[in-house]
Amino acid sequence: MRVDPSVAESVSIWFRLLTCHARMLAEIRRGIETAPSRRPTITLARFDLLASLHRRDGSALSSLSEALLVSAGNVTGLVARAERDGLVRRAPDAEDRRVVRVWLTRKGRTTIERLLPIHAEHVHRLLEGLAPLERRRLRKTLGTLRGRLEDAGLA
Amino acid sequence: MRVDPSVAESVSIWFRLLTCHARMLAEIRRGIETAPSRRPTITLARFDLLASLHRRDGSALSSLSEALLVSAGNVTGLVARAERDGLVRRAPDAEDRRVVRVWLTRKGRTTIERLLPIHAEHVHRLLEGLAPLERRRLRKTLGTLRGRLEDAGLA
């Protein structure tokens, strides 16, 4: 099978991106799910939910589904279980009762604020092996790529 | 919450990598699962299995699990279903009967060789918006990162 070199380069980039993603995700999951000095076990999915609300508290269920890159059904279950455990609460939007918004409780905020720095340090340890210039360029190029993928209407 | 700028940069890199990965994967899945002029529907998981065997036919089940970054149980089911559909066959290793190896059938080989170029072109369309220099650097940096993650014993 003959392949155009630039096509082969693209496939190689994708393959490396897949591998880096999988390895980092496995490490980060392990870090989140076994972080020390926490009582309740937190799953990576729940961490992502709380972190997303920490960035934008009161998000609509529908926008959480997009932000977390999971299906609407999965978000509903995830939020219901987090509510049962006292980490978030759901309430209809004041203006449009059809929209359900999700808020961190005090317990949810305490939990995520304890975990975020541990998570950030962990991510940093995985990436700090790259040289400063490589890191800057990687961040910039991934930003460009993300923009291209958005422009192309891909989601 | 005060955060060291280089830690914040790492978190931003990871977040961008997550987003690019999710968007590309969704597009690639759509491309694979709806590729034109194919009769049998192929899932992305099955595509990955056949592509992995195309690179290294006769892989052991255990090494497929690693290569595909899925659990041993999932690989067993995936391989069993592909065998049922006549795409692969399993056979014990000639030297060590405890090792199960997986081989492409003629039908499996035809299927993957028809899909690989479609897949490669699709991946290329997603990445060709990057400038040639950016592409080269991105590939190199992801290769460096992959090596670092391997060196650190992360899998």
Notes on the protein architecture:
The structure is a homodimer of 155-residue chains. Chain A is mainly alpha-helical. Chain A contains 6 helices and 3 strands, in the order H-H-E-H-H-E-E-H-H. The first copy, chain A, has helices spanning 5-33, 44-55, 61-67, 72-84, 106-127, 132-151, and strands at 59-60, 88-92, 100-104. In chain A, strands 1-3-2 form a 3-stranded antiparallel beta sheet. In chain A, helix 2 crosses helix 5 (106-127). The two termini of chain A are 31 Å apart. The mean pLDDT of chain A is 90. The interface between A and B is large, with 57 and 57 residues.
Give the structural class of chain A.
mainly alpha
Largest interface: A-B, 57 and 57 residues
Strand content of chain A: 5-15%
Shape of chain A: globular
Distance between the termini of chain A: 31 Å
The residue-averaged pLDDT of chain A reads: 90
**Oligomerization status of the protein chains:** homodimer
Low-confidence stretches of chain A: none
Provide the gyration radius of chain A in Å: 19 Å
Main beta-sheet annotation of chain A: 3 strands, antiparallel
Helix content of chain A: 55-70%
> What's the order of the H and E elements of chain A?
HHEHHEEHH
Number of helices of chain A: 6
Strand order in the largest sheet of chain A: 1-3-2
SS elements, strand count of chain A? 3
Short recap of the structure:
Two copies of one chain form a homodimer. Chain A has 155 residues and is mainly alpha-helical.
Supply database-style keywords:
homodimer, globular, 155 residues, 6 helices, mainly alpha, 3 strands
